[in-house]
Design goal:
This protein is an all-alpha fold. The protein has a domain of 62 residues. The chain is built from 2 helices and no strands. The two termini are 41 Å apart. It comes from Mycobacterium tuberculosis.
Length: 104
């Protein structure tokens, strides 16, 4: 992986790390969903009440969309962690079956 300055960085991925990231995304999505929209402190007769209410509705819709995306990301990360762990286990088993060089 290239980073600034042309140096290379090594990306280290573990199933536990992916699972932790999935849990964090799910937690943040839940917090975002639970966020209370600003109260409608404006009276309906005020001239800007309609604009404020519309802005609140758009903010709520945006929060719902972001939350849904975060939940989908959390689910995908969890699935990736399970597949990664399964492949790692299968590779370890395959390597365990290989005889050392020069043995019969």
């Amino acid at each position: 992986m290239e980073v600034a300055g042309g140096t290379r960085a090594r990306l280290r991925v573990t199933a536990d790390g992916l699972q932790a990231l999935a849990g964090r995304c799910a937690t943040l999505a839940g917090e975002l969903s639970a966020a209370v929209a600003p109260s409608g402190a404006v009276l309906s007769w005020q001239a800007n009440a309609v604009a404020v209410n519309a802005a609140h509705a758009r903010a709520g819709a945006a929060a719902a969309a972001v939350s849904a995306r975060m939940r989908a990301t959390a689910a995908a990360l969890g699935q990736a962690a399970r597949r990664y762990a399964g492949q790692d286990t299968a590779a370890a088993a395959a390597l365990g079956g290989v005889r050392p060089w020069g043995t019969h």
